[in-house]
Amino acid sequence: MNLRNSLEMATATHTGMVRSHNEDSVNVETDIGLAVLADGMGGYNAGEVASGIATALIATETREALTRLSPHDVDQESGEMVAFGLLNDVVTKANESIYQSANSQPQYAGMGTTLVVGLFCDNKVTVAHIGDSRCYRLRDNRLEQITRDHSLLQEQIDSGLLTKEAARRSQNKNLVTRALGIEPSVIPEIHVHEAKPGDLYLMCSDGLNDMVDDEDIELTVSSLSSNLPLAATQLVQMANDAGGRDNISVVLVKIKRDFPAGNGWVSKVRSWFV
Amino acid sequence: MAKLILSLDGQVIKEYDINKERMTIGRKPHNDIQIDNLAVSGEHAMIMTILNDSFLEDLGSTNGTMVNGQPVKKHFLQGDDVVEIGKYKLKYVNEKAGGMSQQEFEKTMVLKTPPVETAKAKAATDTNVSDTKPDMQANPQAAVVAQAAMKADAAAEQPAVGGKPQEDATNPLAGAAGDLGGTIQILSGPNAGRELPLSKPLTTLGKPGIQVAVIAKRPQGYFITHVEGTNFPVVNGKPLDAQAQKLQDHDIIELAGVKMEFFLKS
After folding, report:
1. How many contacts does A have with B, using Cβ atoms within 8 A?
2. Which has more pLDDT, B112 or B143?
3. Sign (positive/negative) of CA torsion B28, B29, B35, B36?
């Protein structure tokens, strides 16, 4: 089933104003409803190698898996949607691939990446993430963060040590507690959310949300939702105007209409007409 | 490394490097920072430090602890905060990690805790500030950093942008264009005469579904961009292209059949 008629996606990525190269990587495959964003870390060019492996491998592996599996079915063993296990598998593969490169090639030693992946199917979005790359949802003009950072700061907020406001002033912004490719295995956090027509999903690297307040992000995506590419470049511009201290990447996904997974031939026939 | 400068009546007495997870302040000699004065409680306050962030906590002292003139129980210390204990002042100076460039320092790193200990570390952070000590102590050392590689990397990059405080960077829209007071005045149609201040970072104009443009307030000024609709906005008689255009004082904008003027209010 091709989702091009139901979803619109736009991306933007930028080195920022301070860094010399862009270690972020984004990849969207609208037809299969997949959006991937990764923020790499590690010396020389290793950061972008890690994020590049993650986005490319997850896209090809997901496309391949979708030829075998129906993501909207419920897995008999786990009771979860198949999409859940599918994302878990592809993220695991990406982790192994990065970890092996890092350990076999000295110039890549210590590289890793954060990750956020959204897989849209059957009026739902399955979001997997690792580290501090985020996914937000704009619904009824209200922006809500639907991932929770795997970072020291988030743990401090959860424990009540810091308020959200104080966290903006913290100097420990750059410490993530989970990343892809650092250890032999990793557990992605995965959640399934209902996706409604009119929803807008924003995925971003911390280069955006560290520089631009959630309030201004909300204003931007809600007022520019009719022009996604402009909204994406506007967000990058705002982060750069604010200093652009890190690489900035955004992925925007708009739900234009329902995308129920029909079973078998009904949906195939329908897809010929839309 | 952050430090505290102890002074009395403007005379500097001593400087203390914050080099421990937990530093105590009090009258008794076992304190890390001893202030031998009767207005100071035996164990008066303590400073807990997690990597680069320091927190001041009053330990139930008799005469209390003030920061920048306000009494506090617990406080997240910011650069140049002045802590007052009795007549003594402790100035908090945070010169971000000596030797390391700001840039290098800001690079994302993984805080690696051994898998078994993750739950424990989390439980500790969840319970109480002072209880986190043992785990926090282990963390900085355990933080996986591709040190050598990172250094070379940072050296190749341009130097960090000055020593600007964090707040500046996060809220730049408050400056620059913010003071110019860009305003739109409607010149034609039923709303003629109305003024619309461009106070937000983005202001949209027009009719959704027909023609919409947006004016972005940036440090360099105000920029208009076409958002949706087949017709593009016209500025001073010339239609825009897909690019943003900087607005000049008294530019005339035509949009969805309405004429308006952009001007800068002083």
Report:
1. 164
2. B112
3. positive
Q: How far is A149 from A64, CA to CA, in rounded Å? A: 29
Q: Which amino acid is it at B173?
A: L
CA distances from A26 to A10, A35, B210 (A): 10, 8, 32
B160 and A20 Cβ atoms separated by less than 8 Å: no
Query: Is A169 within 8 Å of chain B by CB?
Result: yes
Q: Give the domains, in start order, of chain A with CATH numbers.
A: 7-145+179-271 (3.60.40.10)
pLDDT at B265 over 50: yes
Interface test mutation site (partner A, options B21, B47, B53, max chain A beta carbons within 10 A): B53
A171 to B50: CB separation less than 8 angstroms, yes or no: no
Q: What is the pLDDT of residue B113?
A: 56
In tens, the pLDDT along A110-161 reads 899 999 999 999 999 999 999 999 999 999 999 999 999 999 999 989 988 8
For chain B, say whether A220 makes contact (Cβ under 8 Å).
yes
Cβ <8 Å between B55 and A176: no
Q: How far apart are CA A40 and CA A53, in angstroms?
A: 10
Mean pLDDT of A79-88: 92
List of residues 6+ apart from A15 with CB closer than 8 A: A21, A22, A247
Distance CA B223, CA B208 (A): 19
**Do A186 and A92 meet the contact criterion of CB atoms below 8 Å apart?**
yes
Angle CA(A125)–CA(B112)–CA(A56) in degrees, nearest 5? 40
pLDDT of residue B189: 87
pLDDT at residue number A269 = 58
Report residue B163 as tokens.
């020593």
Whole-number Å distance between alpha carbons of A39 and B41: 49
Q: Taking residues B136-141, what's their average pLDDT? A: 38
Q: Which of B243, B247, B239 is nearest to B263 (CA)?
A: B247
Q: Which two structure tokens, joined as six digits, stand for A133?
A: 């790359």
Check A159 against B113: CB less than 8 A apart. no
Distance CA B42, CA A134 (A): 46
B160: confidence class by pLDDT, cuts 50, 70, 90: very low
Q: What is the ipTM of this complex?
A: 0.84
